[in-house]
## 1
Amino acid sequence: MKQFKNLATIIMGLWCCVAVDAHDFEADGVYYNITYEGDLEVTYKGESYDSYNEYIGEVNIPEKVEFESKVYSVTSIGDYAFRGCSNLTSVTISGSVTTIGAGAFNGCTGLTSVKIPSSVKAIFNSAFYGCTGLTNVKIPDSVTTIREHVFSGCSNLTSVTIPSFWTCIEGGLFKDCTSLTSVKIPDSVTTIEAHAFSGCSSLTSITIPNSVTEIGQYAFNLCYRITSVTVPNSVTNIEVGAFRRCTGLKSVTIPNSVTAFGKEAFAYCTGLISFTIPNSVTSIGDYAFSGCSNLTSVTIPSSVTSIGTDAFRDCTGLASVTIPSSVTSIEYGTFMGCTGLTSITIPGSVKSIDYKAFEGCSSLTDVTIASSEPPALKENSFNKTSYILTTIYVPQGSLITYQVADLWEKFRNIKEFDLVGIEEVVPDSESLDDPVFNLQGIQMEGADNLPGGIYIQGGKKFMVK
């Protein structure tokens, strides 16, 4: 039994030695591993990067190191080599290094200076993540591979130079770089990936070149200080949360190439006052404009066939909305909490109004419905106070149908309106030039291509189905 105990002690002792000396050797305070190619990789001391954080002050990574009478070239900085070395202040990387590994300088909060030499070809995931002391970085043109989150969390980074031939801004590359004020995206870039600039709260302007075809999910989320955005006509989709919580955004130009707004695309952009959706767009995603509390006007074109759940939820400044006749249903919570909404026009194409579609619309006084057949209604589609305070205007001859229809019968004020065909409103050519107004008194741009609803021309009402 004693022999077994002694053997276990010897094995444990050998294991501890291996654990402590996992790097191959140390020279001048820098730890190295010999690679399969016979070169050197800078690494950490010990078995794990969590074991020691011994690198402090200034570190010089040389081109060559002699070990056991053999000279080796230093070609890479290994994964997590300096991770968590918070007292590391500067690193000089020699011109022999071609690769900076994943998390190599992750969490080096004291690092204020690093010069990436033109020999470096690849920088991997999160290499400089959380280096809060870095203020500027120049990425040399030699870098052809750069992975996600490389500079994420570098909160004092104020400027960065991006090589002119890059085709992609990787996911989270500059996420939470809260001091970054401007970035020039080169004309070579075709893709801005998810979260690329998310949380860059000091970014005041961004120019998206015409080469860009894709703006990824949450790409500019929480960029509070951006005031205007022009989306190039090479882009077809505004992805999920692309400009979410850009609270300073006041002007957005969307080209006719865009066909869809993703979920939360412009959610909580409280600086937006008006928004024109181009007639190329066919769908508006869930929560797309939710929380845009200062939005007073939105134009929804007849190309839109789908408006997602909660799409305009809590748009408290929105006073009126005309839904186009291409829409067949009003989804859950679409206009919920729009406390400033006083009137809405629902086209004859709408067959159903879902739960809470207009819940919380406490100022809603007029709802005009173009269909003689009552749309299917759900419990709580409207505020309970709407049953008393809101007037429902329905086509002539359909009053009784609405008064006995399921849930519609709860409304006390249902009235018929007279409709006149447009040809009766404009009996002579001179009247064709009369301006067209919606029921809220807003002048429309001519009588052509009007969305479904009720309009006034020449002092008479007409309906577009």
## 2
Amino acid sequence: MKDYLQRQIWILSELYSHPEGVTYKEFEERWERSSQNSLQTPLRKRTFADCIRAIETAFGIIISCNARDNYRYRIMQRDWIQKDRVKEWLISAFAVNTLLQDCQGLTERVVYEEIPSGNRYLLQVLEAMRENRVLRIWFQDFFDPEPREVLLQPWLVRVFKRRWYVIGPTEKKSDGEESASQTIQNSLHRYPLDRIERIETTERAFKMPVDFSAEAYFREAFGIIVDKEDYDVENIRLKVYDTNHRREYLRSLPLHWTQQETEQHDQYSVFEMRVAPTYDFIQELLSMGSEVEVLSPDYVRQEMRWHANEMMKRYMT
């Protein structure tokens, strides 16, 4: 069973890494040389066909075999897969892992950004999300001396700045006991996994709203903070200087999906975006130092000026 699953992952990785397509003969020869084939078993055509069907079912993708192109197998609608960020991330992770295992010595030369909270509770949270089960968590806030107990409906998870967050509404207790009809708070709450001291999956089920979309929830946010009561969505105008090629960086990796370059000059460009100027957004702008200047709205510009003055005071003493 393990060998069969390993074969599926390897075939999927080969397909993902070769968008031009791979023939069965090429699969056969590569599998024979692959370090994944530890048992040195041949890739028979019937087994190969079974693997293709299993991959299509497990990942919801279509694999075609074009007779006009030397019977090459390829993943269809790759652009559609790229729009499904979770699916693309999962397939890409399989492909990279397979390549690393095939290339001896390459593992030590690939450095990734560690997420300290990723391995502790993430799987348990995902299991609760799949089963729509309420989580009981003991969360250690920076402002409280002791962890506090929370009943949370895990609606979604997100990774941001090397932290995994579980997000959802919380349930209230009545007279110290769990109420039969829970009262759901209006806003969703976010809990970083690295500050959760303990977690339990309860038997209590919740109903996920059919009209909820995680993508829509974060549409107007820069990062992890969504607070519509305290932050309005604004048309942010940034003057980005050419110092250290900062505007080239923003062109290649936009701050937000609404970002547009509206003006180009010799020494700077003006970028505009529709986003809520939350704490994490301001911190991102501050990290760019003097290479970025907020033009509008004025209150965001004034906040950046205040931070700059406070920073100057630190270095003047």
## 3
Amino acid sequence: MRRASAGARICPMISPQWLCFMKFFDESSPFYGYSACCFTGHRPQGLPQNDTAAMKLLRLGLMEAVQLAAAGGVTRFSAGGARGFDMLAAEAVLLLRQRESLPLSLFLELPSPRQPEGWPASERQRYEHILAEADGYRYASFRNDATAMLARNRRLVERSDCCIVYLARPSGGTFYTVNYALSRGLFVYQLAERLRP
């Protein structure tokens, strides 16, 4: 999908809360003209440690990115449900939807129903909460293998016109997904670069 032409657009999901929050989308937002955003980023080992200033900055930057996307017109967000950045992103959308009463939807593209097998109990609990609060989810496969994860990553990109990413190293599934998004002409908003000191 290509960026919409200039001019204010009214949200296609008009609601009183949305109109009170903003009458028109913010044309200065880098997300202006886009409607569907996916997330991709590293697993916990590729992110700052919990309870550090760097992790707090990442969470804040992610919330600001989602707000910026919503201000530009994005109403549909998709995440892959993996531990790490995917879960942080999904929680940011759900928090903003609840706190600001924004008409945001969250869809999960999951590799398989077996994705959370072997996770710590606290992570499985977070995953189940996100699944329960999401507007929908679907599985790429019934096997939890590299092929299913690749299919999940491709589906995320193919159903989006922009992407919020946290790419701190040029390798792995996040690197592949970012390159796939760029090859399909998606606008990529790179959080890791924006958060560097």
## 4
Amino acid sequence: MRKNIQTKVSNGIKVLIVDDEIGIIDSLSIFLKKFGYDFTGVTNPLEAIEKVRNEKFDLMILDFIMTPIHGDKVVEEIRKFNKELYILLLTGHKDLAPPLETIRRLDIQGYCEKSDKFDQLLLLIESGVKAINQMNTIKEINEELKEANAKLEQAYLDSIETLRFTVEAKDPYTRGHSDRVSEYSVLIGKYLGLNEQELHTLKVGGLFHDIGKIGIPDSILLKPRKTHTRRIFRNKKSSSNRSTYIIKCSNIQRDYTSSKTSS
């Protein structure tokens, strides 16, 4: 008995058919081939799980009553490692159909009874393909936005880095100070169990915490520490306010604010 039936790609949508009756797979293969779908047919539901694990499919047409396990158990296993696969459930036993609660819990996108004409199934497939294409478009847009945001953030960090180097060039006493503050902040953050985003915020904040010194005149910034007056101390202390002003519109500041709000 043939256990796998496969045809070449046509419209870019890969469909996996899972039914323990080879006759159903034969009929669906003719139907899907007519509409240009790339499909694979599998009679063993356990094999289907492994195929989804190791290959990329866009849509799965799945029989409900099968051996050795039913369709809902197949979906339950697949959802443990794949949340995106679009699944249509078929059954020739209306009275044995899974409850609506199960369909919702397993995120099964469509359900219909088996029929010789496959008209209802075609509508479900076409609807599924539209949803898949929309999700793929959204993913592409999100990736483009993510890449654009990364470039903007890097450009911002580069500009602030230039200011940081300018400050360290003005005040040799603090050269390397920001790097050390950043490193120690991250170590403390790891000890406290902070997540990656919070550690990134600490790292960047440590690097840039002293950039406010760019606004302090050299006559004050470079004055010998033993001769500090109260006025000089106030000027140096105000550098933290300048640092906040410089980065307050950045992602760094928003991340810091949101992390404080959520804690």
